[in-house]
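Hey everyone, long-time lurker, first post.

I ran two proteins through the pipeline my lab uses and got sequence/structure pairs for each. Pasting them in order. The first:
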Amino acid sequence: MSRSAIVQGLAVALCVLANACAGGEWTDFGAVWSPQNGMISLQCVVVDMNRFGETGSVPSAAPLYKMYYSNGVYPECKQVHFATSPDGVTWTFVAALKNEGKKPAVVYSPQGFGEGNAKYKMWHTIASTEEERHHLSSVRVCESADGLTWSESVDCVEGDPDRPLLEPRGGPELSNVWNKGSYGVLRVLFNLDGPAAPDPAKPMANRYVMYYNAYGMDPQSEADGGPSVGASVALAISADGVTWYRVGDAPVLRCTPKTTGGMVSFADVVKLDGKYLMCLLTDERPTEGIIRRIAQAESLDGVNWTVVSKDLATLKTDDGSKGSYGLSLAAEPATGTLQVWVSAGDGPGKLAIKYGRLEQ
């Protein structure tokens, strides 16, 4: 993606669809924040009802939400930036954090991670080229005690070479490879009581559970009327957050025009009221341009997913060009209401955070 793809006419309309999904109602609040440089994408929002143990001038001024994001449009973005908010709507830029990396996925654990004093971990990708996107080592992990000062990043590694997260094979075999590459980590869930060794029989009970983007040649996508190259959501587990093992021989959610309404570009997962909820930005490619929709899926076990809405909301630029570059979810601590932050076009050459809520 180049900056030129968004420099003209990026006024994105979020079309509100009442009662769109599972008895819920989607409410669009429009653009709520844009950083000073006017560029924000690939964001990850984390929330803590105890405000991360921090204090402000008054208790309600302490951050309830923290956002980690890329400072541009993939693959040109080179740095992870950081902002905070007391309410999820009003945001304040804090600092530029990592001099390398993009597409951050952050976990906050007030009890720590079992060793050391870190309370935050971040997975980010350094991949900018097609070749780099074919290897898990392009995903790196670092940690922090305060969410502001971070350790040096280390490469993630494949735990089972015979069943890798990514299979960068070429030639005739490529037609059967759904996970040739990845644009990065979508979300990591953490369980302090997870086993010391990975347990594929109980994926969601593991200490670290990763949802990641995987793309490759997908005959099912083509059969469903989509492109021959498909992009879907896959699952992996880890005991230390560094060495990862793929779960299953297929993505947990194959994203095609038939299943989700289009190929997935971004997605996020939260656990709420005993079930897992996923929102996805999907691509539809009509002759007049690209339309992105927010779809929603649900799962009782985190592995088997059912799409409950392909049309939670629709995003389309006035000129038909791409206009959204990230999606993040969090449940509001007081009410459990599902909140969605989307990075979307907000005028020539600009990307802003647009905010919506799904009332169940």
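...and the second, right after it:
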Amino acid sequence: MSIDPLVEEAEAGSEIYPHSTNISDYVFPTLVVASSEFIPPPLPSQNGDVVFQSDWSTNAGTPDNAKDGNYFTKATDATQNVNAPVGGIFRIDFTTNILRRFRAKFAMQINGATTDTMTIFIETSEDGVIWTIRDTITINTFDIKVEQDRTLGSFTSRYCRLRESTNNTFRIRFLDVWEIQDLGGQSPTLVKENAIDNNISTYWQSNSELNPFLRGEFSAIADKEPSAVALFIDKSKITSTQFLIQTSVDGVAWTLKRTINITQLTNLAYNFIRFNRDVLPIRYIRLVGNDGTSKTFAINEYRALIPTSTQWLERQTHKTISPTSTSIGLAG
């Protein structure tokens, strides 16, 4: 990799390790793999198991995306004004009547007077006839998209739906349903994409296990050499006391870059951790718990600094950073 010609010569014994504490300079991995992952239950094979009710049936999008275990695929692309249909807005039939735990993630925008409110119920049913309210959401902001991400308790059910309480009183301008997911008794924090969803309130958390890890793949920018990671961490979710930062070209052979004690991190904030650049362009960065069995590791947000021409011009030089020392600062 050639260095920008405007970069000044580093002083003897130093190399150029670009660094930044501006989160906008950091990019998300294109894919993450975790030691503990949410495994979605198989999709039912029957047709019509996911339905938009009433007026929504003409703008169904890809309904099965609402329960494919992927919180980035939308089931809807509805932006027109429609009456909130009687009996529900969106319904899923999981085809079997068993103990389930649901997570509902959706966004809605409605029309109406500023003095009005709209109530959305998340309901479940064993037979599709008798429905039980499991969660209630009140929306009183109009012409503004309101996002919701709700995890419900465990109960026996076959169906789950979103229902607007007053039916014809309100008109819905916008609806996106990302997931109404059967968690199958699993924790929603096992969803590894929580660490790259640009939302610091969600997080990935491993099971209690040996050397829990989260691995990021930067396939779209594999011809670059990252020089830092930005991690937003909630220490209350972590029982590991130390973790390693490792890089790899192929995801098989790993090079140790930093050893970090959890006590070095600032809680509920972005931590910017710099390390030595690789000689070869790397594709993977892995974060690994490093202190024995039955430990949890958790990350709210995970990004990496991939130097661009602009960032090279920051030309911060630094002595070689020890990959094993825990006595040096996060910036090296």
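Reply from user beta_strand_b:
Welcome! Quick read of the second one: The chain has a mean pLDDT of 76. Residues 50-184 form a domain with the Jelly Rolls fold (CATH 2.60.120.260).
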